[in-house]
Each structure stands twice: as C-alpha cells, then as structure tokens.
Amino acid sequence: MPTPENVILRELLDSEPGWISGAKLASKLKLSRVAVWHHMEKLRAQGFDFEARPARGYRLTARPALLHAGLIELQLKVRPRGFSITVLDEIDSTNDEAARRLAAGQASPFAVLARRQTRGRGRFGRAWHSEPNGNLYASFAFRPAVPPERMQTFTLWMGVNVCELIANFTRLSPGLKWPNDIVFDGRKAGGMLTEARIDADRIRDLVFGLGLNVNGGSAGWPADLARRATALSALAGGPLDLNRLAAAIVGRVLLAYERFADGEHAESFADLWHRYDVLRGRRATVLEGSRPHAGTVVGIDGEGALLLRDDHGRTRRFRAGEVSLEKE
Ligand code: BTN
After folding, report:
1. What is the pLDDT of residue 287?
2. For ligand 1, is residue 155 a contact (CB within 6 Å)?
3. Whose CA is nearest to atom 15 of ligand 1?
C-alpha cells in the first residue's frame, strides 16, 4: 500500500515541470485538502519543497539532497517481483545489514542503502569512508543457488555494468580497475565488495556492496584519500541528482544480476570489459599479500583472474591482489 506521501510524490513527479491541483490530489487520496496539506508538510520536513498557487495547485521546487526511499522507488524502471528497498539514516555497514537480513530470512532480492555508514568496509578489511555527504552506500542481496565457481566473474560483470550506467547517466568516462575499483583518470570514485555465504557446493546467499562518491567532495576526506579519490560531482562540475542516479543504479544492478544468473552475459561481458578495463597493456605491480610482482597486464582469463606477463615473458595469474600502475 503506497503511503499518502508517496501518492503525492508520484503525482508531483508525473506533473513536472507543471502543476497539480490540490483538488486532484485530494480526490486521488480521498482526503480533505487540509489533510493533503498536512502530508505535504511531512514531505517538506524530508527535504522537498513546493510552490503553491491558488489557481494552479502545487509544483515541486526542491528535492532532498540525501537518499530518499520514496524518490528512489518512484523512479525505478525495473522491479522484480517481491523486490524491496530500505533506506537507512545510519548503519554500521550496508553489507553487514544485508547479511543480517538474509540470515533472518528476508525475501530476496532486496537492497539496503544508507545515508551514512559508521563501519563501512572495503576489500582486505579496509575502512570505507562513509560520511552523510550525498554519496551512495548500497548493498544488494541475492540467493543465487548456483555452484560458487559460476560466480567467479560476478564482481567484474557488475563493475562494468555500473561503469556503463555511470557513463550513460553522466557522460563522464569511468573505467574499471581490476578487480573492484571504479576510476576516472586513475582516481577512485567507487568500490565494490561482494561477499557470499557458501554451503557445501552451493552459494547460499550473496551480498553485492557498492560505494560510490557522488556529491560528497574531498572536504571531509583525510589527506591521503583526497589525493587518490574523486567524486562524480567534482568531475561533472556540479551536484548530481543522487536519488535519480540511485534508482538508475538499482535498476541496472538488478538487470545485470538477472542476466548473470540466467547465464546470458558472456558476450556482452567481453564487449563491456573491452570498453571499461583500464589495465590491459599497462605496466603494473600486483601485490599478492606483501609480495610484489611487476609486469604488463595482458588481460583476464575465463575465471576473472588477472594475467600479468613479467619481463621474462612468463604469464602469471592472480585470483586476488592489489594493482598499482606505473606512471606512463
Ligand atoms: C573497496 O573498494 O575496497 C570496496 C568498497 C566497498 C564499499 C561499499 S559501501 C556499501 C557497502 N557497505 C560496505 O561496508 N562496503 C560496501
């Protein structure tokens, strides 16, 4: 059952950039115009604003800058049966929250987004800086019920899909740095963390986490992060509509998951990988634990492992590791 606020929002969004009359809203909601006005005040408290004119009605003039569940839901173009989105004000980690909800039996797929994380995590247990500054912290929960080896290229596939969505949405040029970094000219704007629980030979459930610096600039970042990282708003020259972008990303992630689960992704994976991979042909060092290996990246294999040719012509494969590029 949609809430009165969501009904009002849908009508306002559908009427944009025009007006919707108070009488029409009241009859849609079967409420008095005073009651409608009260619901609009609730929306105002959530960061929306309206212009009201006696003869014309209402028009949306401002939207919340931070994540808003209703706005995301209303702008979703894809919605598998039973799919749900939760937007939390604050959580330790959306990946952890999604895992807890899976363990508690919540129906999948679902997404958990948060305006702020107090213990956002990256690969190798590193912290993911997660202030409430207009960035995206999102986790998606699935129960794929396939053998673990089917999922080897999952994060790479999701990564190139997210890159393409960002490219289409912003007209910027993102790249994917194996295995999980979304980068722009060597600066990281996003990262992905896939975590699975595996029973004997099947994946029981899986959480795909995405952190993306959207509107949160370097102001609150520690110095070393500010040197290495960037945000979409800095590259685009101004803030982006976070909720519209979040809805587009949710839709793309759901679609990408379905194509992956149905095994329909191989051809477009090769194509997207070719378009967004930033490592191929580059001189790089791969840190495997604390051991550095230098060479030239020649690509990935069918299992998503990185292939690095050393100066003796030997090719080594890496299932995991940290890649740093030599300056060109
Ligand atoms: C990395 O680059 O090392 C991966 C970063 C992944 C961060 C995201 S933010 C949403 C989700 N929740 C987490 O705690 N981590 C992921």
Report:
1. 95
2. no
3. 121
195 pairs with which residues across the strands? 207
Coil/strand/helix, residue 43: helix
**Separation of CA 63 and ligand 1 centre (Å):** 26
| Cα–ligand 1 centroid distance for 117 (angstroms) | 10
* pLDDT above 90 for 66: yes
pLDDT in tens, 252-303: 999 999 999 999 899 999 999 999 999 999 999 999 989 999 999 999 999 9
Greater confidence, 14 or 133? 14
Residue nearest to atom 16 of ligand 1 (CA): 209
Name the DSSP letter for residue 237. T
Give 277's DSSP letter: B
Closest-lying ligand 1 atom to the alpha carbon of residue 117: 14
97 CA to middle of ligand 1, Å?
Answer: 12
For residue 318, the CA-to-ligand 1 centroid distance in Å is: 21
Radius of gyration, CA atoms only, the chain:
22
Q: pLDDT class for 221, splitting at 50, 70, 90?
A: confident
Instruction: Show contacts of 230-238: CB within 8 Å, 24+ apart.
Output: 230/184, 230/187, 230/188, 230/189, 231/135, 231/189, 232/166, 232/170, 232/172, 232/189, 233/134, 235/170, 235/172, 235/184, 235/189, 236/170, 236/172
227 vs 249, higher pLDDT: 249
Among 129, 140, 210, 322, the mutation site with the greatest number of ligand 1 atoms within 8 A of its Cβ is: 210
Q: Give the integer Cα–Cα distance in Å for 233 and 142.
A: 30
Report how far residue 132's alpha carbon sits from residue 68's, in angstroms, rounded to the nearest whole number. Answer: 13
> What stretches of the chain adopt beta strand conformation (E)?
49-53, 57-62, 84-88, 110-114, 136-142, 175-177, 181-184, 187-199, 202-212, 283-288, 291-300, 306-309, 315-318, 322-325
pLDDT of residue 81: 86
- 22 CB near ligand 1 (under 6 Å): no
